[in-house]
Amino acid sequence: MKKTILIIAAILIPLIGSAQEGKELYNKYAGKKGVQAVYISSTMFELMKSIPDIEMEVEDVNLSGIIKTFDGMYILSVEDRTLAAELSDDMNKRVGDGKYELLMSAIDEDETMNIYIRRKEDTVTDFVMVAVEKASTSVISISATMPFEDLRKLLEAED
């Protein structure tokens, strides 16, 4: 029994840790002047899992099925120049720790958008998008249990 509990804890701790990062950032910035914040709980995504598939297909990819793999989502949009720079620094520290891999980077003059994922074997556990402009920073952080193959299909459909 103790061995089973230790194995379950070893599996869940990394997931809890990654969810905590999004929550920590959300709590740090939400409610401040110039910050728009949205949180979608794991309970809301759990409710969405019980809804039958909806026709939201992009070519051969069922977006409804992908959304059902989400466990929680934090969205921050910071328009205050000082806070935006602080959020950008916080994100650079988090994604620069080696736990995330850069999936995509796009630069257009003064705007940079990076997408990162964290995965455990063939499962994407975190998806983070960071968009930085001169005076604003936006972050979308999603905790998920998405098969990497589903993400690959989604990206192929966008080509």
Commentary on this structure:
By secondary structure, the protein is an alpha+beta fold. The protein has one domain (2-157). 42% of the residues lie in helices and 36% in strands. It contains five helices and eight strands, in the order αβαββαβαββββα. Strand 7 and strand 8 form a beta hairpin. It is globular. Mean pLDDT is 78; it is low at 1-19.
List keywords for this structure.
globular, 159 residues, 36% strand, 6-stranded antiparallel sheet, 42% helix, 8 strands, alpha+beta
Order of helices and strands: HEHEEHEHEEEEH
Apparent shape: globular
Mean pLDDT, rounded to whole units?
Answer: 78
Number of helices: 5
The number of distinct structural domains comes to 1
Give the termini distance in whole angstroms.
Answer: 49 Å
Offer a concise description of the structure.
The protein is of the alpha+beta class. Helix content is 42%, strand content 36%. It is globular, with a radius of gyration of 17 Å.
Question: How are the elements arranged and paired?
Answer:
Elements: H1 2-29, E1 35-40, H2 42-49, E2 57-58, E3 61-62, H3 63-67, E4 70-78, H4 81-95, E5 101-108, E6 111-120, E7 123-132, E8 137-147, H5 148-157
Antiparallel strand pairs: 1-4, 2-3, 4-8, 5-6, 6-7, 7-8
